[in-house]
Amino acid sequence: MAVKIRLTRLGRRHRPFFRINAVDSRTPRDGKILEKLGHYDPLEKDPNKQIVLNRERTEHWLDKGATPSDAASQILLRQGIKHKYAEEQAARRAKAKGIARAKGKLFTKAEKVAVQKQAEAAEEQAKAAEEKAKADAAAREKAGAEAEEKAAAQEKAKAKAKAEEKAKAEAEVAEEKAEAKPEAPAVEEEGEAKPEEAEAEVETPAAEETVGAEAPVEQEKEQPKPEQKAQAKEESENNAKAAAETAPLQEPEAQQEAEKDSAPSEETDKGEKN
């Protein structure tokens, strides 16, 4: 007869209570027991009172070849009762664990939970790294856009400054040209006036000589009329005034020549009057 040491569940719902019995391996769960060895109360707060076990009778049945179940074996080990079945079970477990590790598989639930946690942590790290990379890329793009905008603004400012400088230079050149234009006609007028004055100076001595030469002949022939005398005088005065207006700064020699030219004309007028 094969004897097994196993647990029998008692109590009510949500309040379990287990008895540790030695039974025939062919007996059903709630069948006849051979001997009661103790009990196990998982809801007991005191750890020393959770397990109550008859140590002598348990070792007696183990010596006779009784095989404990997995749960009963764990309870016996917690009470410090070593048995052959526990050692065999540990050897089988170690062998199965080695095979699983060799195949790269997980063996215990704790290992599965640990691996799952590691995978979740790695996934979170990957997500964080991806978000960080996206944020860095967005920051770089933003910085690049700001740099481009800044460069464009600087270029616009430079172009505007250059345009303003160019417009200012053109305005200055235009002003210089506008200032130079009125001076050029004045110089031309002065240049034109000087030849006229020279011609007048050349003509006046010749006219005076001819007048001086013809005066005795005319006096001999007939005396000029007073109206003609006054007209000639007015013309000479007007010529002198025009010469003075066009060339206010004459050289001393030109002034002396003009005075000499005016003196003979006055003498001729006096002679005609006489």
Summarize it.
The protein is built from seven helices and five strands; from the N terminus they run βββαβαβααααα.
Structural notes for this entry:
This protein has 274 residues and is of the alpha+beta class. The protein has 2 domains: 3-106, Ribosomal protein S16 (S16 Ribosomal Protein, Chain: A, 2-Layer Sandwich); 179-273, no CATH class. 72% of the residues lie in helices and 11% in strands. It has a 5-stranded mixed sheet. α5 runs parallel beside α7 (252-273). The longest helix is centred in the middle third of the chain and has 113 residues, at 109-221. 6% of the residues are buried.
Properties at a glance:
alpha+beta; S16 Ribosomal Protein, Chain: A; 2 domains; 5-stranded mixed beta sheet; 5 strands; disordered C terminus
Number of E-type strands: 5
Quote the average pLDDT. Answer: 76
With helices defined by DSSP (H or I, 4 residues minimum), what is the helix count? 7
The CATH superfamily title of the largest domain: Ribosomal protein S16
The name of the CATH topology of the largest domain is S16 Ribosomal Protein, Chain: A
Task: List the SSEs and their pairings.
Layout: E1 3-12, E2 15-24, E3 35-40, H1 47-50, E4 51-53, H2 55-63, E5 67-68, H3 70-78, H4 84-103, H5 109-221, H6 226-246, H7 252-273
Parallel strand pairs: 1-5
Antiparallel strand pairs: 1-2, 2-3, 3-4
Helix pairs in contact: 5-7, 6-7
